Amino acid sequence: MAQSQSGSHHHESHGSMKSYVIGFVLSIVLTIIPLVVVMNHMLTKTGTVFLILVMAVLQFVVQLFFFMHIREGENARWNVMALIFGLVILLTIVAGSIWIMTYNQVVH
Amino acid sequence: MAQSTAHVGHHHDHAHDHEHDHESLKTFGFWIFLITDCLLFGTLFATYVVLHANTNGGPTAKELFEMPGIIAETFILLTSSFTSGIAVLAMNKGNKKQLITWLGITALLGAAFVGLELNEFVKMVHEGATIHTSAFLSGFFVLVSTHGLHVSVGLVWMIGLMFQLNKRGITTVTKRKVNVISLYWHFLDVVWIFVFTVVYLMGVM
After folding, report:
1. At what angle do helices A76-107 and B2-51 cross, to 10 degrees?
2. Transmembrane stretches, by residue range (chain A) (predicted)?
3. Which are the contacts of B179, defined by CB distance < 8 A and separation ≥ 6?
4. How is chain A split into domains, by residue range?
5. Entry pTM
6. Tens digit of pLDDT for each residue in B11-48?
7. What is the ipTM of this complex?
């Protein structure tokens, strides 16, 4: 009995109905805001790009914390470190490609 | 006597811990896979962003994309991410029937997503916008269909897992498998949010 309790303890910490509902509502709000702003042309081009990218990143954070439980489980630290490592490479590839190709077109 | 019982108990715990370590290591391994998948999508995003203005006289993003279908796809996928979470909650409660039902709902939503996406692709090809038309469309089809392929693979996997759960019930192994596919599904939702933002929203701006 005691064992099954301590065994289920690890898994029970993997979110509750409340955290899933909060995550779901947040992700819907974070999808509707950029949608409304883009469809109604509410901001300047730069403003819109900035806003919708921020919303997408926030959406990513919501999924990580409310759904993927990145801070929970025994390997939580390693999960986070692997993720940060991945994101550094990701940003280097994406930002680096955009930067160098923009520069390329200016020279032409 | 008491000592030997304690000893046996210890042994049992040890074996249990060992199995538990093994399973949690596998989950960590899956995180590493997700990170590599993240890099794959990152390079495809970089390619798309670099090429998206090169339409070679063909249709542009603004002319091509029809938002109602895309918005439906987005909300379907967001909901399926939520229902796969509910499936995990049902599993933690030890309710096999509920778990399989919620996985089934998730799979149906995923199938609806793939169906809408295929429908969109067929429409585009009929309008003469194929992968050969321009660099923009090559980038577009490769990025979006790689995501669609991931969702389709997840579907096959999820259906297989539903059969296995039905047969074996909730064990340490099937538990880990459900946790892992739920991670995979949430991850695909995240990738779609970026497809939605970078490809579609920026395309129709």
Report:
1. 10
2. 20-43, 49-68, 80-101
3. A14, B27, B88
4. 2-73, 75-108
5. 0.87
6. 555 666 777 778 888 888 999 999 999 999 999 999 99
7. 0.84
